[in-house]
Amino acid sequence: MGAHISIPMYERTVGQRLAFEGERCTDCGTIAFPPKGACPDCRNDEFETVDLSGEGTIYSYTVLSPGGAPPEFAGQAQAEGRYVVAIVDLDEGPRITAQVTDVDPTEVAVGMPVSGRIRRIYEEEGIVRYGFKFVPATE
């Protein structure tokens, strides 16, 4: 059984899943992505929506083999073999975790520039879930 995200929850988070939509704290200016209930720096709870570029660099990464894949990614791991999951420092400041694709896992490196893309993440109960993945940035 895979991770379950209800349809209402999925619909409420479309901006952060499909548009790199974050939020900026109205007190201290910290940018959060995905949006939080309170500012991670000053605990303020008022924000303004900001569009993020989706550009960043790899802070750290790991390569998962088919046996290490979460259940919702088992089909992908079986079809593609190993795949990369990275912690990415977005240019605007937030640090997020996402899959890196369209690259040989042996070519991924810390500090590598990457660019976010909206891609198919997995399918659950006949519903395709989309979200962001990263690809090597083109110079």
UniProtKB/TrEMBL annotation:
> Which Pfam families has this protein been placed in?
OB_ChsH2_C (PF01796), zf-ChsH2 (PF12172)
Q: Where is the ChsH2 rubredoxin-like zinc ribbon domain?
A: 16-48
Q: Which InterPro entries does the entry mention?
A: ChsH2_C, ChsH2_Znr, NA-bd_OB-fold, Thioester_dehydratase-like
The protein's superkingdom reads Archaea
Every ChsH2 C-terminal OB-fold domain range = 50-116
Q: What is this protein called?
A: Zn-ribbon domain-containing OB-fold protein
Q: What organism is this sequence from? A: Haladaptatus paucihalophilus DX253
* Higher taxonomy: Archaea, Methanobacteriati, Methanobacteriota, Stenosarchaea group, Halobacteria
